[in-house]
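quick q for whoever's on today - can somebody do inverse folding on this one?? i tried earlier but teh output was garbage lol. tokens:
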């Protein structure tokens, strides 16, 4: 009976040991499968990540190009506006100079006309004074100023 028990114990121990060995073998097989799957998934993930990263870079470059185009368009627009503004300012300066010269010319002509009128008026006044003096002298020699008929001319 002791030997039989020892034999049964040994059989049970060997079965248990075999079960553990099989479990360990399955564990390592699954570990290898997991590593292979993990490597496969990692490789697939790496490819997906690289593809996504390339797409991200591509989209960034597109955005950067659009931003540059927008900047260039804005720069050209402001350059055109600036050129138009500069042209408008230059035109306004020319118009101002023309108007200034016309005002100066008109003012000068007006001043000359007033001077001419003054000179003509002064000349007429001098002529009138000379005529009055001439006639007074002539009249005084002929008549007495105190004469009552002096103003009537008779």
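ok took a stab at it. sequence:
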């Amino acid at each position: 009976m002791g030997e039989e028990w020892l034999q049964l114990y040994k059989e049970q121990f060997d079965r248990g040991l075999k079960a553990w060995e099989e479990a360990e073998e399955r564990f390592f097989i699954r570990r290898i499968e997991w590593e292979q799957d993990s490597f496969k998934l990692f490789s697939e993930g790496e490819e997906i990540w690289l593809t996504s990263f390339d797409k991200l870079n591509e989209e960034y470059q597109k955005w950067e190009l659009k931003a540059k185009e927008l900047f260039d368009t804005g720069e050209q627009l402001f350059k055109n506006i600036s050129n138009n503004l500069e042209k408008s300012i230059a035109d306004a300066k020319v118009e101002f100079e023309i108007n200034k010269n016309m005002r100066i010319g008109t003012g000068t002509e007006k001043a000359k006309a007033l001077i001419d009128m003054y000179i003509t008026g002064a000349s007429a006044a001098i002529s009138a004074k000379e005529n009055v003096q001439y006639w007074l002298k002539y009249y005084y020699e002929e008549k007495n100023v105190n004469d009552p008929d002096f103003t009537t001319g008779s």
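fwiw The CA atoms of residues 114 and 120 lie 10 Å apart. also The mean pLDDT is 81. so keep that in mind when u check it
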